[in-house]
Amino acid sequence: MRIAHVASEVAPYSQTGGLAQVAAALPSALVGLAPEAPQVAVFSPLYAAVLESVQRRGETLGPRHSEVSVRVGEREHRVAFRSLRREEGLTLHFIDCPELFGRSELYGDENGDYADNGERFGVLCRAVLQGAAQAMDGAPDVYHCHDWQTGLLPALLKSYPPEVRPKTVFTIHNLAYQGWFPKELLPALGIPWSTFTPQGLEFYDQVSMLKAGVAFSDATTTVSESYAHEIRTPEFGCYLDGFLRADCPRLLGIRNGIDVDEWNPATDKTIAESYSARSLRGKTRCREALLEEYGLSASGELLIGIVSRLADQKGLDLVAEIAPELQSLGARLVLVGNGDPALEGRFRWLSEQFRDSISVFVGFDAARAHRVFAGADAFLMPSRFEPCGLGQMAAMRYGTLPIVHAVGGLRDTVIDVDEGPDRANGFRFEHASVDEVRRTISRAASLRRKHPEVWKQLILRGMTEDWSWAKPARQYLRLYGEL
């Protein structure tokens, strides 16, 4: 069985979020499913960032091959593939079209999204369909498409005769990003007007690329079971809940995994001292080092870590509201992140006003993130919605207890101590409100102070659970086989 994954970014070569990590990790896990492993390849654009990353890593891209011509209206793009073989046996095929992808950023610049994004990712879909068989030495049996940038690929396949049409899986990583474009894009890309219906890719007289992926795929998945249910409700459905209830009968939730080799305190070279579930002594040293790095004096208070994009979705405005109260709650905070300039400025101000309890680094650095996961006692994720979330799983690998809003993948992975300490691994709250965040932080601080033996039990449970891609990969392999 040949599986072609198509994604607009793939770690570590091009990355703006969790999609890139999934596009790299899931195919790698599928390759590792011996003896039933399928033949897997990943197709993604050759951005300028990819060339820089390949050079920085000391790797070599193969020469251009499998050249195809993709016409968009009156314009013709000569597109080729350049391939890279990874150590784990996975092949990445980068779509080489400099006029569309050889830019400084993936999706836009300081002026906003690129005006021709519809054309760019329409060409990506067309080029993969025209060249994948030659690149993979055989036609794919299944195309696994990720997020709106690849949504037109299943729509393009509708013109294929059913007896030769490959199967398609479309994964929604975040329903909030839907890829809306003028309907004139359809004839330019050779997509028939018959697809432009409420049951197809039409969305308020525009094209929704994400809706196209759902409407024309053989199966749709999301990145957690709870998110699959949530997006069918008005609260989380982003105006597509009615369509998803009525016209998407096969919608499955399969939780993402994390790279358990990258997130491993026993082998992590970026933290102050390694440790494992067998001996937590090194975690105490990591806590001391984190306090020292961020200029907070040593104390027995609950040390909370946050590593996050600063955005409304992440609920960090709720954290800012209670930040002045942290000391009275028996807690301190270390935050690493960037994003919304208003939130950046607010947290900078808070860290200046409450230096004894809050320390902030505006920006992102992978090593800093690892040190926060290792040194904090708890990891706070008050997201208003969270399709899967990776931070809570990484935190548990490091023995850092998650405090989360019970939505999406956070609900699926974190079990509150009040549900039974014999099965719990953290703390949850049901509503994204200042009162709920305050109450849950206070509850966590109290448990750590009064019942250290229960706290340690939660730590060990989170550290020893399987957060890898092994189980999700087998679920996807079973889905491919059924299709």
Structural overview:
- The chain folds into two domains: 2-257 and 469-482, Glycogen Phosphorylase B (Rossmann fold); 281-464, Rossmann fold (3-Layer(aba) Sandwich).
- It is built from 19 helices and 20 strands.
- With 483 residues, it is α/β, with parallel strands linked by helices.
- The model has no long low-confidence stretch (mean pLDDT 95).
- The longest helix has 19 residues, at 117-135.
- It is globular and about 65 Å long.
- Just give the CATH class of the largest domain: Alpha Beta
In CATH terms, the superfamily of the largest domain is Glycogen Phosphorylase B
- Return the domain count: 2
Tally of DSSP β-strands? 20
Strand arrangement in the largest pleated sheet: 3-4-5-2-1-8-9-13-14
List the uncertain runs.
none
Report mean pLDDT, rounded to a whole number. Answer: 95
- Any idea what the shape is? globular
Residues in β-strands, percent: 15-25%
For the report, how would you describe the main beta sheet? 9 strands, mixed
Task: For the structure shown, list the relevant keywords.
Rossmann fold; 37% helix; 483 residues; six-stranded parallel beta sheet; single chain; alpha/beta; nine-stranded mixed beta sheet
Brief summary of the model shown:
The chain is α/β, with parallel strands linked by helices and 483 residues long.
Task: Please write out the topology.
Layout: E1 2-6, H1 18-31, E2 39-45, H2 48-56, E3 65-72, E4 75-85, E5 91-96, H3 98-101, E6 108-109, E7 112-113, H4 117-135, E8 142-146, H5 152-157, E9 167-172, E10 180-182, H6 185-189, E11 202-203, E12 206-208, H7 209-216, E13 219-222, H8 225-230, H9 241-247, E14 251-253, H10 281-293, E15 302-310, H11 316-322, H12 326-329, E16 331-339, H13 341-353, E17 358-362, H14 366-375, E18 378-381, H15 391-397, E19 401-405, H16 408-413, E20 427-429, H17 434-450, H18 452-464, H19 470-482
Parallel strand pairs: 1-2, 1-8, 2-5, 8-9, 9-13, 13-14, 15-16, 15-18, 16-17, 18-19, 19-20
Antiparallel strand pairs: 3-4, 4-5, 6-7, 10-12, 11-12
